[in-house]
Design a protein that fits this description.
By secondary structure, the chain is an alpha+beta fold. The chain has helices at 6-9, 92-100, 106-113, 123-136, 142-159, 161-165, 176-185, 195-199, 206-217, 221-239, 244-250, 256-267, 271-278; strands at 2-4, 17-22, 25-31, 33-39, 43-47, 50-54, 58-62, 68-72, 85-91, 116-119. The strands form two sheets. It has a five-stranded mixed beta sheet with strand order 1-3-8-5-6. A five-stranded antiparallel beta sheet has the order 2-9-4-7-10. It is globular, with a radius of gyration of 19 Å.
């Protein structure tokens, strides 16, 4: 059986992270790091001797000592054999550090609960994780990729809060006020709103929420919201024929030149060039 080591498998090992946008890994293996997966197309997952089908739009958490393998399943929704899942890898030390900012108990509770498999019914979370998978396939900016990987770990962990804490505890993987603002920032309803207006609906003051958000996630609300907006815009450019100006207005940016500037800074190309390279409507 393969025994994979973080120092050989994690692209950003000094930062404690790595990732794959995989089709399958059909070899029984274990490793000395954690895996957080978002499944985009159906896979067969064998873990600790049990084999189950993991359906599209599911998340999986595997701890270091788990023995597992993954096989792609035939699907009419994936005729071109696109990557089946996003696999985020994180060292034990980095995960303990990250989760410790939320709850000192969380790492230990997750260790007792894993492996975990959960199907998602939350369209906003599915959209975010889908966008991460699509972007990580080609993006070479280390800083941006690390933001996505940290966010994916927090998001997947928070979505499994009931499995980790148990129904009676009722706690979220992230502080309730952070979970609330993250949910709002990922909702189409709020995409065009000023962030101060969204924060005003929460119980904390804007300044308190700003500090707590950064402490909990390692990034600012402004950076996170802009990231979500641009991911939405990129998705619209890929999947629709809508005018660039209309997409820009959707996310609260009326200046097309400003939209072009921040989009190119994020993706390395203008919106028009991005559409030509990634058009999925044909």
């Amino acid at each position: 059986m393969l025994k994979l080591k973080a120092q050989n498998q994690l692209e950003y090992f000094p930062h404690g992270f790595g990732f794959n946008c995989d089709y399958e890994f059909p070899f029984l293996h274990t490793h000395d790091y954690w895996e957080f997966d978002f499944v985009r197309h159906d896979i067969s997952h064998q873990v600790n001797g049990n084999t189950d089908t993991v359906y599209a739009n599911s998340i999986v958490i595997v701890k270091p000592q788990d023995e597992h393998l993954l096989r792609a399943l035939p699907s009419k929704y994936n005729p071109n054999k696109a990557p089946t899942h996003l696999n985020v890898k994180v060292t034990c030390e980095k995960l303990r550090e990250l989760l410790g900012t939320v709850d000192e108990r969380l790492y230990g509770l997750l260790e007792k609960s894993a492996p975990i498999t959960k199907h998602l019914h939350d369209d906003s979370s599915v959209s975010v994780l889908n966008n991460f998978l699509s972007t990580l396939l080609w993006n070479t900016n280390t800083e941006h990729n690390l933001v996505m990987l940290r966010t994916a770990v927090f998001l997947i962990t928070s979505l499994c809060y009931r499995e980790i804490y148990g129904e009676a505890d009722g706690m979220l993987g992230l502080p309730p006020e952070i979970n609330e603002i993250v949910t709002k920032l990922n909702s189409k309803k709020y995409l065009g709103c000023p962030i101060s207006e969204i924060a005003a609906e929460c119980n904390y003051s804007y300044m308190q929420l700003t500090r707590l958000f950064r402490k909990s996630t390692g990034m600012t609300m402004q950076d996170y919201f802009q990231y979500v907006k641009l991911e939405y815009a990129a998705n619209q450019l890929r999947l629709t024929k809508r005018l660039v100006l209309d997409i820009s207005n959707d996310i609260g940016i009326s200046s097309l030149s400003h939209f072009n500037h921040i989009f190119k800074k994020r993706f390395g190309v203008t919106p028009g060039e991005y559409r030509k390279q990634n058009d999925e409507t044909t």
